[in-house]
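Weekly structure sync, notes
Attendees: PL, DS, HV (note-taker this week)

Item 1: Biofilm PGA synthesis protein PgaD
DS walked through the input record. Source organism listed as Pseudoxanthomonas wuyuanensis. Sequence as pasted into the shared doc:
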Amino acid sequence: MKYDSQLISKPYAQPRLQRTAWGFVTLGFWALYFYLWSPLATLVLWLLGIRTAFFELYTRQHQVEPFLLISLPIIAVLCALLLIGWAEYNRHRFGKSDRRGAQANVSLEEVAAGLGAAPAVAASLRDAKVTVLHMDDRAQPSAMTPSALAMA
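Item 1 (cont.): predicted structure, written out as tokens:
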């Protein structure tokens, strides 16, 4: 297959200002989309009794509950601070060095032994990009041919 620039979008090839502007346009259309669904969502919530629960919890007799009005934002801020603190603790503890080491190279003979195939098949698999692997009756690789996708 040939590369078609009209089918594949490269957003990072665009200028940052243009990407940001199109991001805001996309956000605006998503907001409009959700706004258009709001009457149906309101109907479903009303049928499930959510509207009644809202009035009972927050606006009983059309009064705002001061405890809920003050405590819920405080609890939300405390949860956010706790989450940020935990993330910063983990970043400080684990972020200094990468503890993952490089994997040792595996020899061609080890790959062939792991596959149960001849070293020539393992070498062909190593050198090819896209292949069709032929299996014998014992479900072990016996041969390999390059795929048509690799030649395009």
